[in-house]
């Protein structure tokens, strides 16, 4: 994160996370890792190191439908003005 903070003047961090039991279930459903490998993988997760210069930290709890997480992500982007508000005229949408 430090490199991003040095490189971008308006840094917003969006962390997408889910409860451990849900992560375990999702990874196990793929059938590529043993329970021990899944546990080791989740133990390796890095902690979020937020630079002091970050303008905002946003967290999405991805424990529902994917559409809910996507809507939350878009709402954050609109809030920080990376994309235009929903009321933008239809003829100008890209």
Description:
By secondary structure, the protein is an alpha+beta fold. It has one domain (2-87). Helices cover 43% and strands 13% of the residues. The chain has four helices and two strands. The protein has helices at residues 2-7, 20-30, 35-43, 66-79, and strands spanning 12-17, 56-61. A two-stranded parallel ribbon has the order 1-2. Helix 2 crosses helix 3 (35-43).
Which class do the helix and strand fractions yield?
alpha+beta
- Percent strand equals 5-15%
Number of domains: 1
What ranges have pLDDT less than 50 throughout 5 or more consecutive residues? 88-94
First and last CA, distance: 30 Å
From the alpha-carbon coordinates, what is the Rg to the nearest angstrom?
17 Å
Helix coverage percent: 40-55%
| Biggest sheet details | 2 strands, parallel
- Which strand order does the major sheet show? 1-2
Rough shape?
flat
Helix-strand pattern, N to C? Answer: HEHHEH
State the total count of DSSP E strands: 2
Mean of pLDDT? 84
Q: Number of DSSP helices?
A: 4
Looking at this protein, list some descriptive labels.
flat; two-stranded parallel ribbon; alpha+beta; 94 residues
List the helices and strands and how they pair.
Elements: H1 2-7, E1 12-17, H2 20-30, H3 35-43, E2 56-61, H4 66-79
Parallel strand pairs: 1-2
Short description:
With about 90 residues, the chain is of the alpha+beta class. It is about 45% helix and about 15% strand. The chain is flat and about 40 Å long.
